[in-house]
Amino acid sequence: MKKIWSDNMEWSELYNRKSKPRIAEIKAYMSPDAFEAFERFNEKLLNDYNLGYVLPRYNKQKGWFYSYGRSGYILIKEVTFNSDYFSVEDIHIHNVDNLSKAIDLVDTKFHDGFLVRYAEFCEARRKRMKENRLQKSKSTELKYKRNCKWCPKVSRSDIKRLYNSDTKGMLDQELLEEVGLAIYVRCKTSKEIFDLMEQGKIKCLACGEILSGEGELTCKCGLKYTYHAYRKSYRENNMPSGAATPIFNKFVKNWDIARSSQVKMLLIDNLIHEFHVSEISGTRGRPVGVNLIQGTKSQIVKLLCDLASGNV
Fold first, then answer.
1. Residues 258 and 252 sit within 8 Å (Cβ to Cβ)
2. Are 170 and 61 in a shared domain?
């Protein structure tokens, strides 16, 4: 892999929050000796302690870093990267010759009651899962999901009418604003809701009250929710999120500053013709129009094909 940065560029500068590095990119950034030590560290933790790295997290000062543990329970909180070394918490490892200090740290932490705490963690998680299974009974879940009234998607007929008016050179300004605002509100609301859910909180979709806690949550307006049913409803409604989140966030940002009708129409057109892209494989998936336009996936794909060919 070719380097696309200068040698003095720091890890936190190279990959920002929206640009998660893969192992091949970590290898390209680090010196051969440092990366060899990093690989040896991974093998040692897996083979001797049955520990693996979890999905990387991001810190503005340190950039992307790894944590190590079992099934979501963390033993080593931070493994960070530099071009000449990687750090296990406060220990810098330049090559395999100075790897022993990091392994000693892992060994000390592992034998300091880790297995007991891990067993307690697994038992607590098992109990939570059992409670969740009880909570998921269909009739109860449906009752809570009925209170989840998400921002509506745009109708296919409105999209067709908008494109027709643009094709004829008589862009319907009122419809443009209506469609654009509907997409904008859905994207912006989805990000706000997702960020809250990541904190274990939900927002009442009737009055905006922020709720948190276990079991049934009763809002001051009288509506009742559970976190599980709320999050499941969010996914089932295809609220804009997942791998295409940066695309939706970009639309919100650009719509805020767009002034001309031509620019707004271009923003809508670019957005609904985008596709979800897997963070892992990089392959193209379903169209983001599924998150924004009413209809089944096949209906939306047909609409996008018609729009692309001018057959509307």
1. no
2. no
Question: How far is 190 from 187, CA to CA, in rounded Å?
Answer: 5
Same-domain pairing of 110 and 148: no
Cα(96)–Cα(234) distance, integer angstroms = 47
Question: Alpha-carbon distance 12 to 26, whole Å?
Answer: 12
Q: What angle do CA 172, 297, 135 make, to 5 degrees?
A: 115
Task: Give the tens place of pLDDT for each residue, 183-225.
Answer: 999 999 999 999 999 999 999 999 999 999 988 999 999 999 9
DSSP states of 267-300: HHHHHHT-EEE-TTT--EEEEGGGGTBSS-HHHH
* Residue 128 placed within a domain: no
